Amino acid sequence: MAIPETLKKKAEEILFRYPEDRRRSGLIPLLFEVQRELGWITPEAESWVVETLGVTDVNVREVITFYSMMRAEPSGKYLIQFCQNISCCLTGGEEIQKHVEHKLGIHPGETTKDGLFTLKCVECLGGCSWGPMMLINEDQYFQLTVEKLDRIIHGLKAGEPVPADNPTPLLGNVAGEKV
Ligand code: FES
């Protein structure tokens, strides 16, 4: 598959931010653009990133396989990533995860028949104080409950996404003061 012109233009914008001899610093932003544009990092796109940045295949592969937010294989329109680490488990994450599996009729690693949702379980997503939490594509959702999860799924199906959670006001709560 040919690399879309829009993606090439985005690459120019990203690489413009870095000195000529530091182009590899644009690797992660460029990979994010690739998956936003193509849905996942295809083998062709991976080769194009190698060529564009002047890095090695291994440089790119190690980043793609290390970070769980990188989509190394095709997935649904909405990639739901559930944190399965300790803080989220202690605040009810397992119950929420079971609920979403039941609601969508899929298990982790699977995609719904309509191609809308893929479910994945990952390690800590960095929002341990506000668990249970999940990512949907790049949006964070904190302090999940069954009701909140139902609202989020319904919103996506209806094309009216529930806005992602902003951690800043929560930081104020943790510190005991409003921010
Ligand atoms: S344990 Fe769930 S975000 Fe850290």
List keywords for this structure.
single chain, 179 residues, alpha+beta, Arc Repressor Mutant, subunit A, Glutaredoxin, 2 domains, four-stranded mixed sheet, 8 helices, 4 strands, 10% strand, disordered C terminus, binds FE2/S2 (inorganic) cluster
3D architecture notes:
The chain is elongated, with a radius of gyration of 18 Å. The protein has eight helices and four strands; from the N terminus they run H-H-H-H-E-H-H-E-E-E-H-H. It is 46% helix and 10% strand. Helix 1 runs antiparallel to helix 2, helix 2 (27-38) packs antiparallel against helix 3 (43-53) and helix 3 packs across helix 4. Strands 2-1-3-4 form a four-stranded mixed beta sheet, with helices on one face. A hairpin with a 2-residue loop joins strand 3 (134-136) and strand 4 (139-141). By secondary structure, the chain is of the alpha+beta class. It has two domains: 5-66, Arc Repressor Mutant, subunit A; 78-175, Glutaredoxin (3-Layer(aba) Sandwich). Bound molecules: FE2/S2 (inorganic) cluster (FES). The site of FE2/S2 (inorganic) cluster (FES) has 12 residues, from helix 5. FE2/S2 (inorganic) cluster binds next to helix 5.
